[in-house]
Design brief:
There is one protein chain. This protein has 21 helices and eight strands. By secondary structure, the protein is an alpha/beta fold. Helix 6 links the parallel strand 3 and strand 4. The longest helix is centred in the last third of the chain and has 30 residues.
Length: 558
């Protein structure tokens, strides 16, 4: 029979007639206990091996695995990096099988993006081993996973450690996971040329892939809710993605390709008079960006429920990073002494740095607007990061970082004040500290100050789709009613029916085009379209002229 043995410690017995050496006795007792517990001096502290070596000689036979953005972005990054000499494979969008593997091999208590992305890598490597018959040795030696890294306050800062732990337990010990943002991990201490060259050619390829992906995604979300033939927009986008991928992979000019994409999308027939609530999706970057099971395919669900999605672009995140550097530099310039920290200004010219950051912002905005114009994304404005920071700072300190920082609060305020969307959905992983723990708490104050805001915060944990869908549907009921009322008011204001609006729109080149986008006035696209068409109608102009004396008299009376 097993018994539970209680272990006791016997303290040294001191003789009363001897001098009392408390420090000596405690030191002897500590030494005895350290020996018994195996804590002798000289033992090396455990360290997590971090294989990072990737040299130029290995480039020809090493495949870079990428994943984490939208499906269009991942595809274009594969083509763009392949076009400058790398072997690249974009892994499929993470699904629930990836979540299961992430929970099986990952630590407990991780956030949703960790489980999905780690499990997705394990799933692909297992496929190579079990389905393709590739040996573990070949997989480890000939593949690298390239991902984003960060040092935020949440668990995102430990992503790469979670990858290594899961890969080790899944049987792929030694597999290399390299952080895109940590250039130190990409440099070789041996003096060999680095396998991944972070040079202008590399960054230009990445920027082109990101911006074209952003533009095509934005066009898809604009057109899909109003398509007359179901699936027509997706079919056109598929043809566009194929052409863009081919151009990036062969390093051909994107200009003629984007113009062909414009013609493909312009050929899709749409009906803009359909009253659709516009739903802005904000929140934690990965959760609001992914298009798979990681956020319960939220974008697709909203469109199926009759909504138009207003998504956040990756280009906006680039602008936010530029703003962070600008703001931090301006704050350091006010210090009484020189900041010698890692990101300090010691030995640097702050004005030169600010000038370079301003130039970087101008270049990013210029490249995006050029890409948008060529492809047909009209009247799209990238967010003003300083404006977002200014409106949010009263409620969310700009010094705080992690996740989207103050942007979630600022976006909700601006969306409500300027009628940018009918409803706002904030999606984040379960227990996400910056988003759930901080931003959502502040948003309760914002919704009190702006009672007209329809705000729906949701958390994702991988297996709560029914609960999330139910919450979204309840709030979407309000948004649909608000959208119908707004369009009805617009039709009443212009004195036209929906059929009359469609007939009048067909008479004017600026309103009958598929890619034409009306001037922003109301929250819904349909209401804006009604007012835009009415402004082109001669009947509406005569009506406005007839009403002008009344308005002037009313103004004089007041």
């Amino acid at each position: 029979m097993e018994t539970n043995e209680v272990k006791t410690f016997r303290l040294p017995v001191l003789q009363l007639d001897t001098p009392l050496d408390i420090d000596g006795e405690l030191a002897r007792f500590e030494a005895e206990q350290r020996k018994e517990l195996g804590l002798e001096e000289g033992k090396e502290h455990w360290r997590d091996d971090n294989p990072q070596k990737f040299t130029a000689q290995q480039r020809a036979h090493t495949t870079l695995l990428i994943s984490g953005l939208t499906m269009a972005h991942d595809l274009f990054l594969q083509g763009a990096l392949g076009g400058i000499g790398y072997k690249v494979k974009a892994i499929d969008c993470p699904d629930n099988d990836a979540l299961r593997l992430g929970k099986e091999f990952g630590n407990r208590g991780q956030c949703n993006p960790t489980y999905f992305t780690v499990g997705n890598l394990v799933k692909y490597l297992t496929f190579l081993r079990d389905e393709q018959g590739m040996s573990v040795k070949d997989i480890v030696e000939n593949h690298i996973f390239l991902t984003a890294g960060a040092c935020g306050p949440c668990r995102f800062g430990t992503y790469v450690t979670e990858y290594r732990k899961a890969l080790r337990d899944a049987g792929f010990d030694g597999f290399r996971v390299m952080l895109f943002q940590q250039q130190g991990g990409l440099k070789q201490a041996t003096g060999e040329a680095a396998g991944l060259e972070m040079n202008p050619k590399f960054f230009l390829a990445v920027i082109k892939a990101i911006m074209v992906g952003d533009v095509l995604n934005a066009l898809g979300y604009r057109l899909r809710p109003y398509e007359i033939t179901p699936g027509a927009v997706n079919a056109a986008l598929a043809r566009c993605k194929e052409m863009v991928y081919e151009a990036l992979a062969t390093r051909k000019s994107l200009i003629p390709v984007l113009l062909r994409c414009r013609r493909e999308l312009a050929a899709v027939k749409i009906d803009r008079t359909l009253p659709k609530p516009k739903v802005a999706i904000i929140g934690e970057f990965w959760a609001m960006t992914t298009e798979g099971d990681g956020n319960y395919q939220l974008q697709k669900f909203l469109e199926q429920e009759g909504a138009e999605c207003d998504v956040q672009l990756v280009t906006a995140w680039i602008l936010f990073m530029v703003w962070e550097q600008t703001w931090d530099t301006q704050q350091r310039m006010t210090l009484r002494g020189i900041d010698g920290g890692k990101k300090g200004l010691e030995g640097k010219n702050p004005w030169k740095k600010l000038l370079m950051l301003k130039a970087a912002e101008k270049v990013v905005r210029g490249l995006f607007q050029g890409t948008a114009w060529l492809t047909g994304l009209e009247n799209y404005k990238l967010p003003d990061m300083q404006l977002i920071a200014d409106v949010a700072k009263e409620h969310y300190n700009n010094h705080l970082r992690g996740g989207e920082a103050h942007m979630e609060v600022g976006k909700l305020i601006l969306t409500t004040k300027h009628k940018k969307a009918t409803m706002v959905v904030s999606v984040k992983p379960f227990g996400c500290m910056p988003s759930s723990g901080v931003s959502d708490g502040v948003q309760s104050i914002i919704t009190e100050k702006y009672p007209g805001a329809i705000f729906c915060p949701i958390e994702t944990n991988g297996d709560g789709a029914v609960n999330v869908y139910s919450r979204v549907q309840m709030m979407l009921f309000k948004a649909r009613k608000a959208a119908r009322d707004e369009v009805a008011k617009a039709l009443s204001d212009v004195g036209m029916s929906a059929e009359q609006v469609k007939a009048e729109a067909a008479k004017h080149w600026s309103t009958k085009r598929t890619l034409a986008y009306p001037t922003h006035r109301e929250t819904t696209h349909s209401a804006d379209f009604v007012y835009e068409v009415a402004s082109k109608s001669w009947k509406s102009r005569l009506k406005a002229l007839a009403a002008m004396p009344k308005r002037l008299l009313s103004r004089d009376a007041h």
